[in-house]
Specification:
Low-confidence stretches: 1-24
Strand order of the largest sheet: 1-2-3-4
Radius of gyration: 21 Å
Order of helices and strands: HEEEEEEEEEEE
Distance between the termini: 61 Å
CATH class: Mainly Beta
Largest sheet: 4 strands, antiparallel
Strand content: 35-45%
Number of helices: 1
C-alpha cells in the first residue's frame, strides 16, 4: 500500500517535469546585453517590476576591458517579461562623480527609490532618487545626513521603508525608517 501511495505522489512531479522539458527550464539563463562593447558592473545591476507589468533594469557600465567607472546610471525597459529589452536610456547622471553601491526598490505605492553612494563626495555621500512615473523621470538627489555605503532598502507589510547600513567604521549595523514613502527618514 505504501508503494502505491509513493507512486501516486510521484505522478504529478513526472508530468510537471514533462511540461518543463517542453517549455524549457524555469531557471533558464537569459542574456541581457544593452550596450555591445561595454561591460556591466556586476555589483550595480538590478531589476524592478513596475505596476504596469513592465520590468525596468538599472545598471552601471564600464568601458570594455576597464574598471574605471562612469558617472551615468542607465535603464532598459522590457515590455514582455524580460524576453526582449528596449535600448538603454540615461536614468541619472552625476557630473564629476560616480554612482557606487547602487540598489533600489519599488514601494507598495509604486514609487521607485534608488539609493547610491558617491565615490568622491564631500559631505554626506549617500543619496536617494525616486520616480513616481515608472522610471520615466527621476527626482533630484536627496542626501542623507550620514556617510555610509552598502545600504539595503526594504519595505515591511506595514508600509515602512527600512534603510539598513553599516556605520562609518563597519562596526555596527544602523538603520533609518521612512513612514512617508521615502520623503523623510
Amino acid at each position: 500500500m505504501r508503494k502505491i501511495h509513493t507512486l501516486l505522489a510521484l505522478i504529478p512531479a513526472f508530468f510537471f517535469s514533462i511540461c518543463l522539458a517542453a517549455q524549457g527550464s524555469l531557471s533558464e539563463i537569459q542574456n541581457f546585453d544593452p550596450f555591445p562593447g561595454r561591460e556591466i558592473n556586476p555589483d550595480d545591476i538590478f531589476p524592478l517590476g513596475l505596476n504596469n507589468g513592465e520590468l525596468l533594469m538599472l545598471y552601471r557600465l564600464f568601458p570594455e576591458g576597464s574598471f574605471s567607472t562612469r558617472d551615468t546610471l542607465f535603464s532598459s525597459r522590457s515590455l514582455d517579461g524580460g524576453a526582449s529589452w528596449e535600448p538603454p536610456q540615461i536614468a541619472h547622471i552625476i557630473p564629476g562623480d560616480v554612482h557606487f553601491a547602487v540598489q533600489g526598490i519599488k514601494t507598495s505605492s509604486g514609487r521607485l527609490i534608488i539609493g547610491y553612494y558617491l565615490q568622491n563626495a564631500s559631505g554626506p555621500a549617500f543619496r536617494l532618487i525616486h520616480s513616481d512615473d515608472n522610471g520615466q523621470s527621476w527626482s533630484a538627489p536627496a542626501p542623507l545626513s550620514a556617510n555610509f555605503m552598502g545600504a539595503g532598502l526594504s519595505q515591511t507589510d506595514d508600509g515602512k521603508l527600512w534603510l539598513v547600513f553599516p556605520d562609518e567604521n563597519f562596526q555596527n549595523i544602523q538603520y533609518r525608517i521612512s513612514e512617508d514613502d521615502g520623503i523623510s527618514w
